[in-house]
Amino acid sequence: MVKIKDRNTLAIVSGLIGMAGTTLVDGVSRRMNISKRSYREAAAGMFVSKGETRNWRGQILGVIMSSAVGMLGARYIVNELSRTGRDKLVPKGIFAGITIGAIATVIPNIIPNRVRPKDAASNLSYVVTNVIFGLMATIAAAMLGDNSLFDTPPQNDYLQPFEQTTEQKLAQSGRTVDHPLSARRPVPARPGIPGQNADETSSLVQ
Fold first, then answer.
1. CA angle (124 as vertex; 123, 130 as ends), nearest 5
2. What pTM did the predictor assign?
3. Distance between CA atoms of 103 and 107, rounded to whole angstroms?
4. Are 107 and 27 in contact (CB under 8 A)?
5. What is the pLDDT of residues 99-139, one digit of tens each?
6. How many angstroms separate the CA atoms of 45 and 115, rounded?
7. Closest CA to 26 of 177, 179, 136
8. Which of 100, 120, 163, 166 has its CA 20 to 30 A from that of 69?
9. Domain residue limits, the chain
């Protein structure tokens, strides 16, 4: 199977695969009357009126906007897989789906949306839909991405410090630095105790 070697292309493909799963689960939820509004209608409601979200133009707009958010989320997933590796795909996919869904939920609070439902069942359906997106997009990115996208060395391995420490500078000049805490602090003098001589007092101080 031909692997994808470009991260942006991989994000587009895996994002569309994740959106296919989102559309399927969202359609089932809508037919079972769990969700009062489909994901497409809720996405289109940020830009058009409530009546426009139900015609074919509003549906196309909802698909385009949902797909755009899905591709951005898939780009985040690809970056995370490149940074952390392709193991434990299920927890990584669930985490990514919930995170991306939370961000997508905040957007309607910034832009007025009269279409997005406020009931718990619809929003729980959206959470499940986001988890499905995260799982499918993560698995698709891991399977379709070329190995070269995930074999990059950690950044700390090749980012060298640009300024030497004081110890390094002194080591190059052949000098040593005494740590200020290494010197023994003098013991403060204490008044003598009646019945003891000076030697006994000094031994108690030590």
1. 90
2. 0.64
3. 7
4. no
5. 888 877 666 556 665 666 677 887 788 888 889 999 999 99
6. 5
7. 136
8. 120
9. 7-153
